[in-house]
Specification:
Pfam families: FtsX (PF02687), MacB_PCD (PF12704). Helix 9 (260-303) runs parallel beside helix 12. This protein is 55% helix and 18% strand. The protein contains 13 helices and twelve strands. It is α+β, with helices and mostly antiparallel strands. It is elongated. A hairpin with a 2-residue loop joins strand 8 (195-196) and strand 9 (199-200). The protein folds into two domains: 3-52 and 265-398, no CATH class; 83-253, no CATH class. The strands form two sheets. It has a six-stranded mixed barrel with strand order 2-3-10-5-7-6, surrounded by four helices. The protein has a two-stranded antiparallel sheet with strand order 8-9.
């Protein structure tokens, strides 16, 4: 029996029982579509979060007040810590040869209003260096001016949403904006940036850090953002930050330092593991499809007993019969995989329309992996029917026994 004969007989067998073939193809396609969609969702989520952190720059270091050992848990977002970070602490870091820029942060929420329009929003208190550290760009005007960190100026930079809601029909530059009971002159409007690691700069008002401390009646800092001069300098900068703060805080190392590469690496590992886990769960449907392949093929062996006996009587070997049934299983599996990929791509295309801001892409490796896994599943579960067919005795098979 030639290779072409094997494919021909397998194709005839598939065509002769269309309902059986349709059930196998449908089951396999559901499994492949599930795997591809879930893999695409997991991989896209991983890529999105990693890209978000990388967009902050490659040498970012975040200094937080408090540490796990002294707070009994994760560094607090708000509330008391053993010792607050101050502008003096931020100033002490400026002399490091490994640090390129330092942006102290004070954050609060307050009502902002102008000409009878008012809304509640987040207020960022920082310095001119924030523009460099967070890679901000301007749509109009200029960012906070370079000045002493303890100098309180009544100027502000607003996001696009604030501009649209409070200055919809008039220029925003040069206008006065009231924040709580203080007035600030708008000197710049940020370019639209949207959400970035949980911070929406479009709805942000940025003022000098000293003005923010006076506005919220506090001397503490929420965070200190540090940009190092290079990736190689990052680890040296971290050690120097620890030693400087420890010396200033009476020998207590009561800060937590987060480096960007460690955050990116951690998220990458977590989301990769999550993607593999979810894809493995979806792959269970492929195993179910494989069991269906095996059961249907076993029934097929029983129905085609006389045909198998005739082939053996004409000289077909066990190996040839083995390959005949495996080829049929492979054909059905590949057809199901192709249909599943088409359904998966249509599902992803629909999700892209519904969620245009989320980048949904199926990795090339996942596409080929789905095809190979479907083919492998069909072959594995087709072995038992193939072996059963190859072991039939010609005379008994011709007699349909």
């Amino acid at each position: 029996m030639l290779v072409t004969d094997t494919f021909y007989h397998a194709l005839i067998a598939v065509k002769s029982r269309p309902l059986r073939a349709l059930l196998i193809i449908l089951a396999m396609s559901i499994g492949v579509a599930s795997v591809t969609v879930l893999t695409a969702l997991g991989e896209s989520a991983r890529s999105y979060i990693v890209h978000e952190f990388e967009a902050l720059g490659t040498h970012l270091v975040i200094v937080l007040p408090g540490r796990n050992e002294t707070t009994g848990g994760h560094p607090p977002l708000f509330g008391e810590t053993p010792r607050d970070l101050t502008l003096d602490d931020a100033g002490a870091l400026a002399g490091s040869p490994y640090i390129a820029a330092i942006a102290p942060l004070t954050i609060g929420s307050a009502p902002v209003s102008t000409r009878g329009l008012e809304r509640e929003t987040n207020i960022f208190g920082s310095t001119h260096a924030l523009k460099r550290v967070r890679h901000l760009s301007m749509s109009q005007g200029s960012f906070l001016p370079e000045m002493e960190v303890d100098q309180a100026l009544s100027v502000c930079v607003i996001g696009q949403t604030i501009r649209e809601q409070l200055f919809a029909n008039q220029p925003a530059l040069g206008q006065w904006l009231r924040i709580n009971d203080r007035r600030f002159r708008v000197i710049g409007v940020l370019a639209s940036k949207g959400q970035s690691i949980g911070v929406d700069f479009d709805e942000m008002v940025i003022i000098p850090v000293a003005s923010a401390q006076a506005l919220f009646d506090t001397r503490s800092l929420f965070r200190i953002l540090v940009e190092t001069k290079s990736e190689q300098a990052m680890h040296k900068a971290v050690e120097q930050i620890k030693s400087l703060i420890k010396a200033r805080h009476e020998g207590e190392e009561d800060i937590t330092i987060i480096t960007q590469d460690s955050v990116v690496g951690t998220f990458d590992k977590i989301l990769t593991a999550l993607t593999l886990t979810v894809s493995s769960i979806a792959a269970i449907s492929l195993a179910v499809a494989g069991i269906l392949v095996m059961n249907v093929m076993l029934v097929s062996v029983t129905q085609r007993t006389a045909e198998i006996g005739l082939l053996k009587a004409l000289g077909a070997t066990r190996r040839q019969l083995h390959w005949l049934f495996l080829t049929e299983a492979a054909m059905l599996s590949v057809a199901g995989a192709v249909l599943g990929l088409i359904v998966g791509q249509l599902t992803l295309a629909t999700l892209r329309i519904v969620y245009p801001a989320f980048p949904l892409e199926l990795p090339v490796w996942a596409l080929f992996a789905a095809l190979l896994v479907a083919l492998f599943t069909g072959l594995v579960f087709g072995v038992l029917p193939a072996r059963k067919a190859s072991r039939l005795k010609p005379v008994a098979a011709l007699a349909k026994r």
